[in-house]
Write a structure and sequence with these properties.
The protein has about 270 residues and is α/β, with parallel strands linked by helices. Helices cover about 50% and strands about 15% of the residues. The protein has a nine-stranded parallel beta sheet. Helix 4 packs parallel to helix 6 (about 110-120).
Length: about 270
Amino acid sequence: MSRISAKFAALQAQGRKALIPFITAGDPEPGQTLPLMHALVAGGADVIELGVPFSDPMADGPTIQRASERALAYGVSLRVVLGMVHEFRKSDATTPVVLMGYANPVEAYGTAAFAHDAQAAGVDGVLIVDYPPEECAAFAEALQAHGIDPIFLLAPTSGERRFSDVAELGSGYIYYVSLKGVTGSAAIDLDEVARRIPAIREKVGMPVGVGFGIRDAASAARLARVADAVVIGSKIIETIEQAPAGGAPARVTAFLREVRAAMDKEMQS
């Protein structure tokens, strides 16, 4: 059982839902990534999604685009990101880490070499936004051969073929994009998500995390009622942007603790 599957199983036994925050590696500068990863854990993160900076992040809105630009200005590459995960593993051997990014850096690295090096670094899952399941069976198999979960996106527009492909190739959890648009672009329709999640979970046979548009503790708590995981990205990046120099880790921890408490209270009610 992977670290991700073990985490979801433990949470289910506790009657809790997963909190999955996203940050971009190297933002606001490379020296802050490890403190921020530990701050996420201190705030109650169950899984960390670590963004790989990319120059054309097509699924991301302006907030995460800015984060990528700041990281790229420091020369943060995929190899550097793997090094960050390796350093994180020296002091945290239990929190699952999922790399989230785009195909170009992986293709440039070499898919086989990437799968090998990601395993060596301690990566648990990989979500490549522009690798649809019907086009990357070999990549998914390479990841799973190295003990890494290939994680895929589903959207409100996904059809039956996409559901079956994701069910066949994916593992760990599914990332359900809750709205039509880029990250941070709008507030989600929680009622619509609640209607769709049971069918998605039944069809894919794995936990469903929901992201894109979750910006506060109240919406995260409501979502925890129906989803297996709550994914928060843009709001955390904004919190980092607005923090004073050196103050981002403390502010991120405080924000996540509020979200974690609201989610747990909702599940206990």
